[in-house]
Amino acid sequence: MLFTVVPAQAENSDDVVLTFVGQKAGENEAQVYTMSYAELYAFPEQRIQTSTQVTYGSHIFSGPLIRNVLDRYNFEGDTVRLEALNGYIVDVPLSDFRRFDAIFAHSMSGLRLSVRHFGPVWVVYPRDSMKELQDIRYDMRWVWQLRTVVVYDSQLNRNLSNCDYCDEEISHG
Q: Which letter, b or e, does each residue of 96-126 get, where b requires 16 or more Cβ atoms within 10 Å of its Cβ?
């Protein structure tokens, strides 16, 4: 079952910024966890200088590595569903976040991201440093206004799979 939880409008460090859903080894059901701004900022910060398909020029994005955040929850699965406040949903192979230093960006060029400007969290890949990432499959995975992250096993949850832009290695067709 897919949970969709809308976080409260974040105004201080205790407000919910992201919701995570997944099942841990030995558990029978998926669990829902929320993350505050304070928890997000507690992770070691990474910086990526890169261009995007939706902004002009190159920017410095700051935030934690996605793999570090996901490791905190230790969910089982091979796919990450990213859901945005605007209703956009994309499934991403979990292997992306092991292979690439993608981040949950909370700021761009030193300014905190707002809902009005791609925030509060934007999935950002190091696009300019790797030619492989300059491809439509990866451009579709740059989710801004991120609100919910669902980790699941694509083989056990085929009804969740709509991964048109995933690598062939986890094709669901």
A: bbeebebbbbbbbeeeebeeeebbbbbbbbb
**In angstroms, how far is the first alpha carbon of the chain from the final one?**
20
Can you tell me the distance from the alpha carbon of 112 to that of 115, in angstroms, rounded to the nearest whole number?
10
Contacts for 133-140: CB closer than 8 Å, 24+ residues apart: 133/100, 136/165, 137/165, 137/166, 137/167, 139/53, 140/90, 140/165
Q: Please report, in tens digits, the pLDDT of each residue of the chain (173 residues total).
A: 344 443 334 446 669 999 999 999 888 888 999 999 999 999 999 999 998 888 888 999 999 999 999 999 999 999 999 999 999 999 999 999 999 999 999 999 889 998 998 989 999 999 978 888 888 788 889 999 999 999 999 887 655 554 443 333 333 32
Q: What is the pTM of this model?
A: 0.82
Q: What distances in angstroms separate CA 136 from CA 55, 166, 167, one per listed residue?
A: 16, 10, 12
Give me the helices (H) in the chain, please: 37-42, 66-73, 96-99, 136-139
CA distance 150 to 85: 14
Task: Give the distance from CA 60 to its chain's centroid.
Answer: 18
